[in-house]
């Protein structure tokens, strides 16, 4: 079942996110089941919110356990709170094309 995951990370800075992103390499070594990833920070730049769409909760959990969390732990990045919601509907629009990774 397709899910929406919301990760909330207080005291996770842009610098931390970029270091984790680079080491995990999800942009070039795409996680199985990841459909969409969007990350943003509050005005302080110290609190992240991530919204992902996954094909299944199992695939999300596999990514978290085997790829993301080990890198975060190694870099002393605080563990985020993870919320999972069943997808009711997804709409995409032409503007999404500029964010596609080739």
Share of β-strand residues? 25-35%
The biggest beta sheet is recorded as: 4 strands, antiparallel
Mean pLDDT: 95
pLDDT < 50 stretches: none
Distance between the termini: 26 Å
Shape: globular
- The number of E-state strands comes to 4
Account of the protein in words:
With 102 residues, the protein is an alpha+beta fold. The protein is 28% helix and 29% strand. It contains two helices and four strands, in the order βαββαβ. The protein has a four-stranded antiparallel sheet. β2 and β3 form a beta hairpin.
What is the element layout, followed by pairings?
Layout: E1 3-10, H1 14-24, E2 34-41, E3 47-54, H2 57-74, E4 81-86
Antiparallel strand pairs: 1-3, 1-4, 2-3
For this entry, give a set of tags.
alpha+beta, 102 residues, 4 strands, globular, 28% helix
């Amino acid at each position: 079942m397709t899910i929406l995951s919301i990760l909330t990370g207080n005291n996770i800075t842009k610098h931390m996110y970029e270091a984790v992103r680079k080491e995990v390499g999800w942009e070039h070594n795409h996680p199985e089941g990841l459909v969409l990833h969007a990350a943003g920070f509050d005005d302080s730049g110290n609190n992240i919110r991530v919204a992902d769409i996954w094909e299944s909760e199992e695939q999300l959990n596999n990514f978290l356990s085997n790829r993301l969390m080990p890198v975060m732990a190694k870099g002393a990045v605080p563990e985020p709170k993870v919320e999972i919601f069943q997808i009711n509907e997804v709409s995409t629009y032409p503007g999404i094309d500029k964010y596609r990774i080739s």
